[in-house]
Amino acid sequence: MSLFITFEGPDGSGKSTQIWRTAEFLRGLGHEVLLTREPGGTSIGDQIRDIVHDVANTDMCSPAEVLLYSASRAQLVHQVILPHLKTGGVVVCDRYADSTFAYQGYGRGMDKEALRLITQFATQQLKPDLTIYLDLDPAEGLKRKQNASSAGEGEWNRMDQLALDFHRRVRSGYLEMARSEPDRWLVIDAMDSIEAVSQAICQRLEHYLAKTPQSHV
Ligand code: TYD
Asked: Is the model's pTM score more than 0.85?
């Protein structure tokens, strides 16, 4: 049985901790779990990540930005995600195509139909079985990320420095996407305790695993 799970939500939402816990939970159930992230996850993707997140690249136009994220994704799907799913494993990915719809679509206002076509092309139409969105007020998220970055933990990137309004549009985009596909999305309040968030995720996974034998092969 293969399963593709993605996590969305801002840095500071506890995403990394929850990804780690989810992987451990699934390993405990006997699954072969592969953790990866976007942009990056491959050598080519990591090189793209450096370009797309470099705060010096203030002149990057939106189409170039979306194509760079999509190029990283195409490589990751081809080289890492699909091969693992084909062995019957579980892939847990820190961000995926929903980030493009949220940031470039809702945030930057790019044409969603164009994004849909680019995404289909880049991903070979691979969609997550389950997407967990850790919802956090953008002001709180940016504050947490700024604190972490001044303490020398985590990276302050080109997207972080966009205005608060941009991040508010991103958040409402996520919530809208989640409402339109409730079977795929789980929205969790990231202000809840680590334990409570983790429990909500595990419950949803147990429910999912009990009812849906998935296969991408
Ligand atoms: P990252 O440093 O990985 O941190 P986090 O996921 O914890 O926020 O930052 C990824 C950034 O890239 C984040 O600001 C969202 C942005 N992004 C897009 O704008 N579009 C995309 O398609 C993806 C994958 C990410």
From this structure: yes
